[in-house]
Amino acid sequence: MTTSGTFAFTLDITDIIEDAYERIGVEARSGYDYRTARRSLDMLLLEWQNRGLNLWTIKQADQALTAGVGQYTLSGEKLDIVEAVARSGSGIDQSDLRLERISVSQYANYVNKNTRSTRPTQYWLDRQPEGVTLNLWPVPEDSSHTLHYWYMEQIEDTGKPGSNTVDVPSRFIPALVAGLAYNLALKTPSSFQSAPILKDVYEEQWTLASDSAREKASLWLKPSTVYS
């Protein structure tokens, strides 16, 4: 038996739109059909970012810490920080110490938010529509540490050329097509009655894809011992 020997299958944006229209029994003919489908596709990608942690969007970055500076503005594509460490040294002498994420209430209750220490131990994220501000506590008293963090990156827009591919792993393409078909059915009178079935298919495909992408490391829980 001869196989292709390749592992590069994907669909570009035009293919995704055409396949979604086929599922609702409609042929995309006009430029508006493609524009409204592209708009629905971009909104669907935004919805996916609200569904939880998409592991393929996790990236790493470094922020040099400056003495006396406790606030740092993240670039616009960085939606959230998953983990953060204060890093010192390099090579075999590198040392990472985990920072604890705290809530706005905890941060607000600190009497002196300008308290200084060798390195920060906690951080609070101020997530505003225009961007995310990272607030460290205590404020670093020198520049000996670097903040190394893992962040969730926004999924890229579809862009203009129909030959673009989407910023998702290929294993999520079935869920993307199913979700777009469901959203197009909601906007197409002749296909509106099929929307509940298409939604069930979409949710099933999303569950299959998201389960395949979940973290598979073992979780160990150790009870603490309290002596009276």
Description:
The protein is of the alpha+beta class. The protein folds into 2 domains: 13-53 and 156-211, no CATH class; 55-153, no CATH class. It is 30% helix and 23% strand. The protein has 5 helices and 10 strands. It has helices at residues 13-23, 31-50, 104-108, 173-187, 195-212; strands at 58-64, 71-73, 78-88, 95-98, 100-101, 116-117, 122-128, 131-137, 139-140, 146-153. The strands form 3 sheets. It has a 4-stranded antiparallel beta sheet with strand order 1-10-3-4, with no helix packed on it. A hairpin with a 2-residue loop joins β7 and β8. α1 packs across α4 (173-187) and α2 crosses α4 (173-187). It is elongated. The mean pLDDT is 92.
Strand count, sense and barrel status of the largest sheet are: 4 strands, antiparallel
Give the tally of β-strands. 10
Distance between the termini: 70 Å
Read across the widest sheet, the strand sequence of neighbours is 1-10-3-4
Approximate strand percentage: 15-25%
Q: What is the domain tally? A: 2
Rg over C-alpha atoms, rounded to the nearest angstrom: 23 Å
**Average pLDDT level:** 92
Q: Would you list the SSEs in sequence order as H and E? A: HHEEEEEHEEEEEHH
Low-confidence stretches: none
Short description:
With 228 residues, the protein is an alpha+beta fold.
